[in-house]
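Here is the promised in-class demo. Please do not try to memorize the tokens; focus on the logic of going from shape to residues.
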């Protein structure tokens, strides 16, 4: 039985996940990785996220990332490891995080007691994460914890994000949603990436998207206008509830007071990051 208020873990996971995601929308990532010899933006981001798994190929990444087109991945993987090793990529990734958080949050926030507190709370929550059937979490959990508080926080947000994400994939499989159906139904909530961003970053074509939308209509999850039906809304909420259940341990371990404090600190940093332009204005939406 949970000891937390309803959806406390979900409310904490939201800003935690988005703080992690600032890396992948950062212009600093392209600048740092181009110094290693990378030229393609997609290759950079695929390498940065998959490096904890080692010099993997398209098959492993298709399985662990879930919603990417395998053919798209195969254009970049395993070729990216000819440009830089996973160890070199991980070093560049952490250097990028340092640059990005300093730029978005400012030196005072990076050096603040609140930053150090948030890092230790997030790391404490991550102590209760589990490795089994969680490949992206487990790969990141093998990495050393950085010394600097802002890097410790980002490392901890990565652990918590990938732990929740790995569990979410189990929920998607149980719901019978394939990669594009998962993306399209999330977009239909108004909280997911816009179709333009999905198609531009995940390697799917417009025909793939329209076919997935039609399959969702046939299941009664989308209506003729592409909006979620009552059944579709219920399915998306059930996915979040199952993800919450599978991701409860870190927040139960942290406790109600610690979870509330981490939520408040993460939200504060996220608001500052968003205000500094951490994410594109058109990233989310149905259009």
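The designed amino acids, position by position:
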């Amino acid at each position: 039985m949970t000891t937390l208020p309803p959806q406390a873990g979900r409310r904490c996971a939201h800003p935690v996940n988005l703080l992690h995601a600032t890396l992948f929308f950062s212009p600093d990532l392209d600048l740092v990785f181009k110094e290693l010899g990378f030229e393609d933006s997609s290759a950079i981001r695929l390498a940065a996220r998959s490096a904890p798994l080692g010099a993997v190929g398209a098959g492993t990444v298709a399985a662990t990332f879930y919603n990417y087109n395998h053919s798209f991945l195969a254009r970049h993987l395993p070729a990216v490891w000819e440009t830089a090793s996973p160890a070199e990529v991980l070093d560049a990734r952490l250097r990028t995080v340092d640059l990005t958080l300093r730029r978005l949050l400012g030196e005072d926030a990076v050096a603040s007691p609140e930053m150090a507190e948030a890092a230790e709370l997030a790391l404490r929550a991550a102590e209760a994460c589990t490795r089994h059937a969680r490949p992206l979490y487990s790969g990141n959990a093998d990495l050393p914890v950085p010394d600097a508080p802002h890097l410790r926080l980002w490392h901890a947000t990565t652990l918590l994000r990938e732990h929740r994400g790995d569990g979410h994939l189990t929920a998607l499989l149980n719901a019978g949603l394939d990669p594009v159906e998962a993306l399209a139904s999330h977009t239909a909530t108004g909280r997911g990436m816009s179709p333009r961003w999905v198609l531009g970053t995940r390697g799917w074509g417009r025909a793939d998207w329209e076919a997935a939308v039609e399959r969702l209509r046939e299941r009664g999850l989308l209506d003729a206008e592409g909006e979620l039906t009552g059944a579709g809304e219920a399915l998306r909420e059930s996915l979040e509830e199952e993800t919450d259940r599978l991701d409860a341990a870190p927040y139960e371990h942290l406790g109600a007071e610690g979870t509330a404090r981490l939520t408040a600190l993460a939200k504060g940093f996220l608001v500052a990051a968003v205000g500094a332009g951490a994410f594109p204005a058109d990233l989310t939406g149905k259009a």
